[in-house]
Every structure is written in structure tokens, then in C-alpha cells.
Amino acid sequence: MQSTLTVFVCSTFADLTEEREAVLNAIRRLKLQHDSMEFFGARAGQPIETCLEEVRKSDILVVIVGHRYGSLVPDLGISYSEAEYQEGYRLDKPCLVYVRNDDVPILPRHMERDPDKLRLLERWKATLSQRHTVASYEDGNRLAVQVAADLGRTLVDMNDAARTRAAAEATLHASIIDEIAGVIAPAIDGGVGPALLLSAIRRAVAQLMTTEGVRKPKLFLSYANSDRAIVREIATGLRAHNIDVWFDELSLAPGAEWVREIARGLDSADALVFFISPNSVGSGWAKQELQIALHRQFSEKNMSIIPVLLADADVPPLLRSIQWLDMRDRNVNVAVKRLAEAIEHHAKRRAESEA
Fold first, then answer.
1. pLDDT of residue 291 exceeding 90
2. What does pTM read for this prediction?
3. What confidence category does residue 65 fall into, taking pLDDT thresholds of 50, 70 and 90?
4. Pairing verdict, β 244-246 and 135-137
5. Domains (ranges, CATH) in the chain?
6. Do the bridges between strand 304-309 and strand 271-276 make them parallel or antiparallel, or are there none, so unpaired?
7. What are the residue ranges of helices labelled H in the chain?
8. What is the mean pLDDT of the chain?
């Protein structure tokens, strides 16, 4: 673990050159990776973007504060050093904070003279003191010794925490497996068929993942083979809108069992998009997919159906009461936009009903 950790050194530069170099040498002796403004090199982005990007990639922040506040970030009203610290703190990264002892004499040029920046510096010091146990330092050498010792303890703590978390997760995993088995066994004993039970589990997990934001909304595209070209365009457009789609051409691997994979696709979908055309209303596969979706919509209330009219056809009776999307003009861009809005609306309505 130690060999992969990166320490970000956060401070002003001109007034703390000696201290920064001493601290960086201490970090090297610990054989840790490090990052700081000296090593950024040329970047295409703005300076603050580069700084914050490096903070996000780091594991620990060493924050060194002297008697200068430093340059302000345009539009933020705080210094680069404070902006770096605030980003690390926001991301819950360990922050080791060191503030120069006020009793140690320093060169006048290393003192902050701008009254506005002086107020910002004092405010930042107060914030650091409220959030952390702050250590004071007098010179670079003693600071380096203190940082090395603190980093060593922090590494031990992080390693211990990682081992404790791993052990807890292993115990929790075993407990969850036992509990799941305890839920499933009575259902099977009570006569619930394994296929039905598995389908219910898939749907529940998919819905939970969507609610928790770890899964994109998913649409199952049901259509007749003769309409494949236009449906393919819509599938591509929906994916560009960050919406997952079950489209047999993309979702079925060679050799896959059609019936099983279609069932899995329907179980994990939030909505079925049924493309209405003379061919689809007469297609055995499309009608079967629609019947499964209708059953879930009316009996389980966890499936939405979005009809899309590709051509005039004899619309199935149960779809006549559902507002459809008229796509007889074959305008793919408009259809994709409206389908994206529809799935967002359905997801919001479902979340409200479950709240």
C-alpha cells in the first residue's frame, strides 16, 4: 500500500522554498510518491484546474502555512493553496496541517502586507484550527522531521483501517449471503417457482441500482425485424444521451439463448419501448415481449410502456389508452429527445411514489 500512496504538498511557494524542499526530501526517504506545483510541467488547462486535478489523484495532503496568503484564484476569491486544501478536505483526504510559529523571526518579504489577503490568511488559519489538530513549525529541518513522523503514523493508521475494513466486508458478505438464502428458501418452500423468483430478484436489484444512482435508466426496445434500421438509429441516439438500451443486435452475444436473454433484458429494464408498425403488431416475439411488459405494468407497477408509432397499424387494445410518440415522420433526433425526456419523467414519478 505504501508504495502506491501519493502525498500532495500544499503551500505558497516563494516564502516557503526551504520548507517545501525539506518536506519533499522527507517524503522521498519514506519512498512515497509526491506531487506539488514544482512538478506540474506544461499543461493545456488553467492553473487551478491542474492543481485540483493533482489533488484529486493524491491520497494525503501536507498543508504548510507561513505568513503569506499567496495569489488568488480568479473568480474564487481564495488563494491557490486554500483552494487545493478545500478540494482535498471536500474529498475526505487525510490532511496534515503545519502552521509557522508566530514567534519565529522571518524576513520582511515573507510577511503578508496586503490587508485583504491578511484577513483571508487569518480566516483560513482559523478554519484549519477548527477542523484539524494543527502542528507548529520553526524551520524546514524540524518541519521535515515532524512531517516524516506524522506520515509514518498516518500510513500505519491507513493500513490498519484497510485491514479492518476488509475483515468487516468479508464478515458482512458472509452475513448477507446467509440472509439472502434465508429469504429465498421460504419462498421456494412456499411454492414460488425458481424462474419467477429469479426474475423478481433481477427486477428488484435493477430498480435499487437505478434509485441509488449506480445504474443508468434502461429501455428495452421491442420491434419487428423489418423496422431494425430505424430502431438501430434510435438505440445509438439514446446511448449518446447516457441511456442504456436493450437492443438485440447489441445485447445478444452469438450463441446466446434468446428466450433467457430476452427475459433478463426485460427484468432489468425500466421501460419497454414498443415500436408500432403493421409488422410488429403481428410479430410473435414482439407481442410476447409486450405481454410480459403489460403484465408487469398492471400487476407489479414497476414497468413503464412507451409506444412509438412508426406506421399506421391496428394498435393493440391495451396500448390504446397509453399516450404514444408519433414517429411516422421518421425524425430520429426528435424521437430520441422525447424518449429521453419520457424515461426521465417515468424515473422521477417512480421515485416520488416510493418516497
1. no
2. 0.48
3. very high
4. unpaired
5. 2-160 (3.40.50.10140), 196-354 (3.40.50.10140)
6. parallel
7. 17-29, 47-57, 80-90, 115-131, 140-189, 194-211, 228-240, 248-251, 258-268, 284-295, 332-354
8. 81
